[in-house]
Amino acid sequence: MTGDSIDLFGDKACPEAPGRVVPVLVPMPADKAYSYRVPDGMAIQPGSIVQVPLGPRQVAGVVWDTTDGPAVDPKKLKSITQVFDCPPLSQDMRAFLDWVAAYTLSPPGLVARMALRVPAAFDPEPMVEGLRLTDRRPDRMTPARTRVVETAADGLFWTRSGLAHAAGVSTSVVEGLRSQGVFETAFMPPPPVVAAPDADYAVTELEEIQREAADTLIASAAQKTFSVSLIDGVTGSGKTEVYFEAIAETLRQGRQVLILLPEIALTAAFLDRFEKRFGAKPAEWHSDLAPRTREKVWRQVTEGGVRVVAGARSALFLPFEDLGLIIVDEEHDPAYKQEDRVFYNARDMAVVRARLGDFPVVLVSATPSVESRVNGEVGRYRPIHLRTRFGAAAMPDLGLIDMRRHPPERGGFLSPVLLSAIGKAVEKGEQALLFLNRRGYAPLTLCRVCGHRFQCPNCSSWLVEHRFRNQIQCHHCGYAERTPEACPECGTFDHLVACGPGVERIAEEVDRHFPQARTIVLSSDLMGVKRLRLELEAIAKGEADIVVGTQLVAKGHNFPMMTCVGIVDADIGLANGDPRAAERTFQLLSQVTGRAGRTGLKSRGLLQTYQPQHPVMQAIVSGDAEAFYEREIGERERAVLPPFGRLASVIVSADTRTDAETHARGLRQAAPQVSGITVLGPAEAALAVVRGRHRFRLLVHGRRNSDMQAFMRAMIAAGPKVRGSVSVQLDIDPQSFL
Ligand code: ADP
Ligand code: ZN
């Protein structure tokens, strides 16, 4: 243990004190750390992970930094029960957790909880029993025994089964040798979850523009100080190859690297690619990991054994031993925003973490968020442009299909123009992708006779038909029932009609037109992550002709034979009252059409739209992203929307509509008068009821330099007490307005 605990907790000042008192942050929605006594002889320091009594329970917590609070009588306090044999959370990490809590207006305990998700990993991993060759040799040598002895002659520790396997013998041969003293047993550290990456394993020869970009990143990595770079480059331009160079440089410095990816569970291809470059896979971190793996990864990240983590947004809260670089790939992706308990944007918090830790961060996107673009333009971020695709790969030839002029046949959703393009691709033995961001068969079911619409009993939303499962489901609360045969309202049989398309319905239409083609539907509700990974691999190998998918097909996959991409409903999402609607549509559509033509083959992207003149559509087909950004940035600036202004949401929910509304009105009345900040609402949320909870929203709008947190804190403090079923959620920098 280091000696700094003595100074920090004032032991020197009063050596005769009956016991030291330290704050411990427990992973609960507590506003601050609680005070605990340190038993005599217990060595702790700020950041130590400890066990403390809390009510009737024992919980894990972190020794926090002392602040000048009211003096407490140590005799009245409970004592820390034990210190875990685990590296303490670093000063940077503690500062980061405090910062996130203050910024998002979340209880610090809940933020700390995100760093302490894996209590089983607080104890060291058990040592593994191993064997080592001694000087003794068996009385009688056999060829099998000779092989074992030769294999183990390197003097290293071997597990019994590992040695047997390596020598190609059964474990009984190894055991026989051990019993004769040829091997001694010893305990060795547990094996690493992933092998160490090698910065120089298979260096890629970069093109000139890529080389320049990489050199800029390497230089910033070499400086080992805070900087933000924004790689803005078209899909297939080699952004990944370029940031791999920054990773290599950081590995050479002996520091750790975190790569954030929006959909890690689906990015098997990324892991393979990393392995090809660095000779070993990065450790993965996401919600789908097996518990044992999770524990190992957490532990080995804190001890420094794991050098590179590729993870979902929650990986940002891993307590790295010596983090030296963060990459945020697809930085514009909405999946980086968590809207549950602690509302945070991992992209923004990654920048904060880098600033507090004083190391570089690299944001990467083919379609950066407007916020990051502006930060690049004003010089807060260093923009790095890659405007052309690597090698022979050309951008797909993009076109709009005006649905008013080329309508689908009755009951269908695919225009003859799109169908003919799909047909041509399939004939040539190439692949087609149809994209529609709607799961299920149809978004609405109604009775043709009485007009009854099937609505969720818990939410204000329609039930979505999932024909493959023969269910109608709510996409907000998971409610599901068998698709009824008769209308519950008028009792008529066989008169229910599906309204509008989902991916399943599009697949049905495709099957009708191309009965010989192999069609796959990719949708997160149809299969688990493992299955999805297999399907994606199969598609990449050409084992499907036509793929119909939701947005998960948009993310980072490389399908070499994909030469035709059709967007079934490009207008979806353009008119939903979200200030980022145009930006989101632009990003998603660019990303999907970017799936096409990633090899030398000529490829097409077609967007079905009823608004061909819309600036988003025009920006995509003209390939003039710059014009789109310029226009979008201008509009944001005029409306003082982010990043030129600031937003925060308050979502009040309760079991009854009246309770929710009354509380929301009370908050509105309690809002302080601050120049530059206005409160809009309360208004009933667009999603008025979710899981039986009635919802009202307030939107707080401020200028760029407004102190939104102070305003919100003041409003909550002066507002009505949260009582009964009421709950209040605060969302700083909201992404969703439903
Ligand atoms: P992005 O991340 O911009 O979409 P990638 O880094 O994935 O682009 O590159 C697209 C494809 O081109 C990948 O298959 C990649 O391996 C290949 N590629 C890019 N640059 C090079 C290079 N300099 N040498 C070899 N292959 C490259
Ligand atoms: Zn529901």
Automatic annotation (TrEMBL):
<comment type="similarity">
    <text>Belongs to the helicase family. PriA subfamily.</text>
</comment>
<dbReference type="GO" id="GO:0005524">
    <property type="term" value="F:ATP binding"/>
</dbReference>
<dbReference type="InterPro" id="IPR041236">
    <property type="entry name" value="PriA_C"/>
</dbReference>
<dbReference type="GO" id="GO:0008270">
    <property type="term" value="F:zinc ion binding"/>
</dbReference>
<dbReference type="GO" id="GO:0006269">
    <property type="term" value="P:DNA replication, synthesis of primer"/>
</dbReference>
<dbReference type="GO" id="GO:0043138">
    <property type="term" value="F:3'-5' DNA helicase activity"/>
</dbReference>
<dbReference type="Pfam" id="PF18319">
    <property type="entry name" value="Zn_ribbon_PriA"/>
</dbReference>
<comment type="subunit">
    <text>Component of the replication restart primosome.</text>
</comment>
<keyword id="KW-0238">DNA-binding</keyword>
<feature type="binding site">
    <location>
        <position position="447"/>
    </location>
    <ligand>
        <name>Zn(2+) 1</name>
    </ligand>
</feature>
<dbReference type="InterPro" id="IPR027417">
    <property type="entry name" value="P-loop_NTPase"/>
</dbReference>
<feature type="binding site">
    <location>
        <position position="474"/>
    </location>
    <ligand>
        <name>Zn(2+) 2</name>
    </ligand>
</feature>
<feature type="binding site">
    <location>
        <position position="477"/>
    </location>
    <ligand>
        <name>Zn(2+) 2</name>
    </ligand>
</feature>
<dbReference type="GO" id="GO:0003677">
    <property type="term" value="F:DNA binding"/>
</dbReference>
<feature type="binding site">
    <location>
        <position position="459"/>
    </location>
    <ligand>
        <name>Zn(2+) 2</name>
    </ligand>
</feature>
<dbReference type="InterPro" id="IPR011545">
    <property type="entry name" value="DEAD/DEAH_box_helicase_dom"/>
</dbReference>
<dbReference type="GO" id="GO:0006270">
    <property type="term" value="P:DNA replication initiation"/>
</dbReference>
<dbReference type="Pfam" id="PF00270">
    <property type="entry name" value="DEAD"/>
</dbReference>
<dbReference type="InterPro" id="IPR041222">
    <property type="entry name" value="PriA_3primeBD"/>
</dbReference>
<keyword id="KW-0235">DNA replication</keyword>
<feature type="domain" description="Helicase ATP-binding">
    <location>
        <begin position="220"/>
        <end position="386"/>
    </location>
</feature>
<keyword id="KW-0413">Isomerase</keyword>
<protein>
    <recommendedName>
        <fullName>Replication restart protein PriA</fullName>
        <ecNumber>5.6.2.4</ecNumber>
    </recommendedName>
</protein>
<dbReference type="InterPro" id="IPR005259">
    <property type="entry name" value="PriA"/>
</dbReference>
<dbReference type="InterPro" id="IPR001650">
    <property type="entry name" value="Helicase_C-like"/>
</dbReference>
<keyword id="KW-0378">Hydrolase</keyword>
<feature type="binding site">
    <location>
        <position position="487"/>
    </location>
    <ligand>
        <name>Zn(2+) 1</name>
    </ligand>
</feature>
<dbReference type="InterPro" id="IPR040498">
    <property type="entry name" value="PriA_CRR"/>
</dbReference>
<dbReference type="GO" id="GO:0006310">
    <property type="term" value="P:DNA recombination"/>
</dbReference>
<keyword id="KW-0067">ATP-binding</keyword>
<comment type="function">
    <text>Initiates the restart of stalled replication forks, which reloads the replicative helicase on sites other than the origin of replication. Recognizes and binds to abandoned replication forks and remodels them to uncover a helicase loading site. Promotes assembly of the primosome at these replication forks.</text>
</comment>
<keyword id="KW-0639">Primosome</keyword>
<dbReference type="InterPro" id="IPR014001">
    <property type="entry name" value="Helicase_ATP-bd"/>
</dbReference>
<dbReference type="GO" id="GO:1990077">
    <property type="term" value="C:primosome complex"/>
</dbReference>
<dbReference type="Pfam" id="PF17764">
    <property type="entry name" value="PriA_3primeBD"/>
</dbReference>
<keyword id="KW-0862">Zinc</keyword>
<feature type="binding site">
    <location>
        <position position="450"/>
    </location>
    <ligand>
        <name>Zn(2+) 1</name>
    </ligand>
</feature>
<keyword id="KW-0479">Metal-binding</keyword>
<feature type="binding site">
    <location>
        <position position="456"/>
    </location>
    <ligand>
        <name>Zn(2+) 2</name>
    </ligand>
</feature>
<feature type="binding site">
    <location>
        <position position="490"/>
    </location>
    <ligand>
        <name>Zn(2+) 1</name>
    </ligand>
</feature>
<dbReference type="Pfam" id="PF18074">
    <property type="entry name" value="PriA_C"/>
</dbReference>
<keyword id="KW-0347">Helicase</keyword>
